[in-house]
Design brief:
Layout: H1 2-9, H2 12-21, E1 40-43, H3 49-60, E2 64-69, H4 72-86, E3 91-94, H5 100-113, E4 119-122, H6 141-156, H7 158-167, E5 174-179, H8 202-205, H9 211-232, E6 236-241, H10 258-264, H11 271-283, E7 292-294, E8 298-299, H12 309-322
Parallel strand pairs: 1-2, 1-4, 2-3, 4-5, 5-6, 6-7
Antiparallel strand pairs: 7-8
């Protein structure tokens, strides 16, 4: 009743913020995931948090899962843990998203072993990293990890995604789910992304940059690359989502004062709940192309800047230029 009253009285943007921060109890759970036998699925950032919860649920429903992460021993430990819990053995997908060469190697190793990919969960991310922290190629580490490398990975893996779409007996499209955040709406920038601040150089070094703005750019970017890839990959369904405000390792770069941490405890949810929305987008038995999911497994509305044709065009052209040495010719 309260949600109905607020949806009728609050401005759309404010209600959207409210319902993502204080979502109702889920009506769709991991028990609703269909049988995933013969489906090969990659989950990046699956060695902890909602990535591990996502992988666990997929294994419980008989998917062939690849655990994405940059630490080999941690991946192996998670594979052992999930084997004990589910009776299923996942495979390692060793990738460092802060290094394009690692992304390229991981994609080509996968394509050497597998011919089809039913789903890719672009789940890995970094939040509020120190501004001086750059990727191996000199980009803002948040934007490269969260956006650029996932765009590159989805592009390099397209042959396997496309092959699944054309040849699976379920007659369904392969899916890619891009994990975004409600933080895409929490910062002020007219167009959504300041491209001048995404790469090391004089302008970036001489500008007083807020790391949360950089994180916001990357979360705008997650939804925009979903739009771009839906246009580029007609046989693959791309979607994006805000998984929720969660208790995960994503907060490792943040320092929250005691009183704020106390109040934050009332709106931080378990990571197992956070996996529901991306699991829904990646497994529900209906097409999810272009959807923006919100907690818990509901359809929502992304920040209006993500649908701006100019921003979509600018980011696509920027990615094509910056990734020219890695994208297929």
């Amino acid at each position: 009743m309260l949600d109905w009253i607020l949806s009728s009285t609050l401005p759309r943007g404010l209600f959207n913020l409210y319902t993502q921060t204080f979502p109702p109890s889920p009506t769709w759970t991991d028990a609703d995931i269909p049988d995933l036998t013969d489906k090969t699925i990659i989950v990046t950032g699956a060695s902890s948090g909602i990535g591990k919860d996502t992988a666990r649920a997929l294994l419980h429903h008989n998917a062939d899962v690849y655990i994405g992460g940059r630490n080999k021993s941690k991946i192996e430990s998670v594979i052992d843990e999930l084997r004990n819990e589910t009776g299923k053995t996942a495979q390692p997908f060793l990738v460092d998203l802060s290094d394009f060469d690692s992304v390229n190697n991981a994609a080509h190793e996968f394509l050497h072993k597998e011919t089809q990919l039913a789903a890719l969960f672009c789940n890995a991310g970094i939040m509020a990293a120190p501004v001086e922290l750059l990727s191996k190629q000199g980009y803002d580490i948040q934007f490269q990890t969260n956006v650029m490398s996932h765009y590159l990975l989805a592009t390099l893996l397209h042959p396997a995604l496309d092959n699944y779409s054309k040849n699976n007996y379920r007659n369904e499209k392969a899916r890619v789910v891009h994990t975004s955040s409600a933080m895409q709406s929490f910062f002020i920038h007219e167009t959504g992304i300041d491209f001048h601040l995404l790469k090391d150089g004089h302008l970036r070094r001489s500008t007083n940059i807020n790391t949360w703005d950089l994180y916001g750019y990357s979360k705008i970017g997650n939804t925009v690359i979903s739009n771009i890839l839906n246009k580029q990959q007609v046989n693959v369904s791309h979607s994006s989502c805000h998984p929720g405000i969660l208790q995960t390792e994503l907060w490792r770069h943040t320092r929250i004062p005691g009183w704020k941490a106390f109040f934050s405890s009332f709106i931080l949810y378990p990571s197992s709940l956070g996996s529901l929305t991306q699991l829904y987008l990646g497994t529900v038995e209906k097409d999810t192309e272009g959807l923006y999911g919100i907690p818990w497994a509901r359809h929502g509305i992304a920040d209006k800047r993500t649908s701006d044709p100019s921003l979509n065009k600018d980011l696509e052209e920027w990615l094509q230029t910056e990734l020219a040495g890695y994208l297929p010719q």
